[in-house]
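Most newcomers find our protein records easier to grasp once they have seen one. A learned vocabulary of local backbone shapes supplies the integers on the structure line. Here is such a record, shown just as it appears in the course material:
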Amino acid sequence: MLFHQLPFDVREIIFLYVRTLDKRSLKKCTTVCRAWYQDIVPISRKIFTLTGYPHEFLSILANQTEERNFSGCVKTLQALDDINYSGVDMLNQILHYFPSLRILDLSRSDYNFAYLQYITDRDTDTNITNLEKILVGDFFIDQAQYKAYFDCVYSLRHTLPYLELSNLNHEVRNSKKALCFIKEFTNLTELSIKNLEHAAADEEFSMFSVLESIPKITQFSIENDFEEDLTQSKPTLDLIYSNLKEVVFRIPSFNDSHMKYILSHFPKQLKKFDLTITKVKAEDWIQKNDQAIIQAFIAYLAEVDDVCFSIERFAERMTEIDTIQSIFTTLSLKEYWPFIFDIVGRDPQLSSHISIRLEESNNVCFENISNISIKRNKKQVQLNYILNLTSLLQQNPDGITQSIDNFIPLPLQRHNTCLDKSTIESIEIISRPPFSLEHVIPVKDCIQLLKSTLQEYAKLSYLHLGQYCRYSEQYCLKFGSKLEDIEHGGPYDEKTYHDTEPFTVGRKRYNSLKSSTIENLTFTLIKTSSLNDFKLNAITALFPNIKYLKIHTSIMKWERDFTTIFNLGHLHSMKKFVLDMNFLKTELQRGVIVRVEYEKQKTTRWYRWSKPSKVKRQFKPNMFELYNETGIMFGAEKIDSATTKVLIIKCFDVNEITLLFDYRVVGKLMYP
């Protein structure tokens, strides 16, 4: 069968897969032929951003040809930085160009009030009644703005399947609150509610009472800052939310009453169950709830396709900035292992990932993060937790880095094959020590931890050790099986770990590797606040199969003769070496000599980086020169060892050596 004879749904899946690999490749596919262009346009133009100048935008829409009509494929219209559209009565002109529009995203619009008013006045237009979602985010400042939003969605109450509500204590129609009208949304299947303390919250709000008023709901999301007493509620006994597929809860507590309600009224198999508990200490939760009910609840979660169970780091506010947090010790974590094993299941084919964060309970925390987070879907398992660094040091007087088991204390007797040393594929250990040098883990101690990890975990494809503190040694050591592992945070999609929350496993990280850890970890990043040849050689000696090595250091520790040697000759498989020269920003010397020695070919290359006498501190990329001399002379100029330092790189047969400065390539030495 020829490609164009395949059903469109199949062709769409193929092109969507191409887009996940490389968006540029998908764009090139549009130039192959007209048939491919017509297939790809609906995929690439599903989301469109409304910004810039309105008259130019209207001109583009009006001049579309039949063959090059992109607006007819748009499903989502985002309004972003659209201040120029203010006062221009042209929304009716714009919207009629998007007959397939289903989602209108106004969450970042500067003109959202006008959009809402326009939709309210023209609720019978075909393009308006076809809308499925109107997203506004948290833009409401006062009751008048919230009322404008609710009037808009209320005008579409018979057709709109999605509704998001906040500011629940505001009066919207006839001196009544929004939830009083929830039953009038006859086509409602998706509901998102935020009852937040800082946004006109309703302290008497009951989430399960709202659920009972929408028995046909398929997706329900709730974020509530207030405790809810379920013992006073009397739910309908025979009520089952048979259409419910996805549930997201972010609530202060989750106890036996919540679990009983879910077991009695939720369908047997959900697609997604996401629970975040915000005001409960992790070590207390598993002790204060009935163990039989917990086991029944875990058995229920075992049938759910996508599960997330998370307990945020509990903080009792003392002042405006100081908080006390409850975090795990190895003893309190011990009670959770049976619970963790039951949630993640026993499928040995799942890709398993573990992230450990080392902190202090008295560290100032400005936002809640997950004290423990357990995630599982059909392809992978992710476990994150925070350990008390002081407690860990007290329990291991000989040093916590002697064994990886100090950080991942898996029980000796377990009946689970999903979280096992032979199946775990990635490990991340991040330390944020307090202002005390006795809590700092230096790089030299990490070398022993690396040895232990390589011995205990046989199938790793990613390993990350890091320490982030402003007053002592900082480092980031990453070892991966792909270049993107070390360049873009490894298998993790979210923000930088030490600044915000723990990693989230990427969608592409579930392909299990069958080779050993040493064979898998071929891409390496060594980023430290200070570096010398001893640290570098000790680390690289553990990974003989390195193909790509990148080094970034703030301070280069030179020897007495102003010479530093990076002996990488033992890395016979290394094909590319990248060295960031930013350490020159803090050096006072007049120049740096880089000498590259190729052991296989017995050849030498020289680089010299110098700066004019008038420049006191700053090196610039255009001051870089390549020389082919083999002695200490550069032309007629002799090297002054008092002001010029020498960096010697010994390698085997590297194809390319790249030198960076301010993230720009200033020198590239190809294999001679």
Remarks:
- The longest helix spans residues 8-21.
